[in-house]
Amino acid sequence: MSFLRIGLSVTLGASLVHISAPPVLCESKRRFYEDENAVNPVPGTVTKSAGTELEAMGPSKLVGGASVRTSPTLESAFKSTRLFAAQSAENIRSYVDEAYAKYHSTEKSITTTASKLHDRSEDLLPNSIYIVVAALSGNIAARQRGMLAKMTFPVVFGLAAFRYFLPQTFANTAFFAWKLEQENLPHIAKQQSAAVDSAVGMVNSVEQKTKEGQRYVEDSVESLKKSIADVTGVDVDADARK
Predict the structure, then answer these.
(1) CA–CA separation, 174 and 106 (whole Å)
(2) pLDDT for 34-76, tens place per residue?
(3) Which of 72, 81, 116, 187 sits 20 to 30 Å CA-CA off 52?
(4) Which residue has the higher pLDDT, 68 or 5?
(5) Has residue 155 got a pLDDT over 80?
(6) Which residues are CB-neighbours of 236 under 8 A, at least 6 positions away?
(7) 62 located within any domain
């Protein structure tokens, strides 16, 4: 009897549990491939997931097909260095180009000026050698003299030879030097011009006085001859021709 009671009790309890449990139904429209991130979660049931290792390393960029991760500070430093190097290279290139342009312009100006100064009708060789020899001769002549002679004799001898062997080239060079002096040293050029004018005026005055004195002497001689002829009746010029 006891076994029968126990069996009935177990059977009755199992029946009650089976009746109280809700039935499990099969979901007819379950979406197995649905993106779970797109599903709106129920408030209060979402927990923040920990970041992955790649996310912890920071954002990445694709450069040439490779994933590259850098920090903004490092990018800014490299950018500043690159811009500074590029600007420095541009400044150096501009400076070199400007210096070369100035050198080329100066060289062209010198060659053009030298070509204009030289007269085509005058041969540079051997006349240039003669001028150099004359300057060296002036140095030799001033060897036993003072410092002033040693400085002036070679210049004077060289300029004299330059004017003698290349007269037209010397005239062109002198005019060019005078023009440069007027452009760069106008005050000295004015003083020099005034001194030259004064010297030329003095020379002209001396020549004029000399001519006047010569004319006075000639007139005096003629007057004396006439007086002698009137007093003595002797023709001095006729006697001198005999």
Answers:
(1) 21
(2) 555 555 666 666 565 555 555 555 667 776 777 777 777 888 8
(3) 72
(4) 68
(5) yes
(6) 225, 228, 229
(7) no
- The answer as to whether 141 is a domain residue is yes
Sole residue written with tokens 């991760």: 69
Q: Is 229 exposed, middle or buried (0-12, 13-18, 19+ CB in 10 A)?
A: middle
What's the total number of domains in the chain?
Answer: 3
Rounded CA-CA distance 84/88 in Å is: 6
Residue 107 placed within a domain = yes
> What is the C-alpha to C-alpha distance for residues 54 and 57, in angstroms, rounded to an integer?
5
pLDDT at position 5, please? 57
* pLDDT tens digits along 84-106: 999 999 999 999 999 999 999 98
pLDDT per residue over 6-33, tens digit each?
A: 555 656 555 554 555 555 555 555 555 5
Range of the domain at 174: 121-184
Domain boundary among 64, 96, 117: 117
Show the 3-state SS of 158-200: HHHHHHHHCHHHHHHHHHHHHHHHHHHCHHHHHHHHHHHHHHH
Which of residues 157, 184, 211 is at a domain's end?
184
Q: What are 205's two structure tokens?
A: 């005055």
Q: Find where tokens 């005019």 sit.
A: 175
Phi, psi of 66 (to 5 degrees): -115, 145
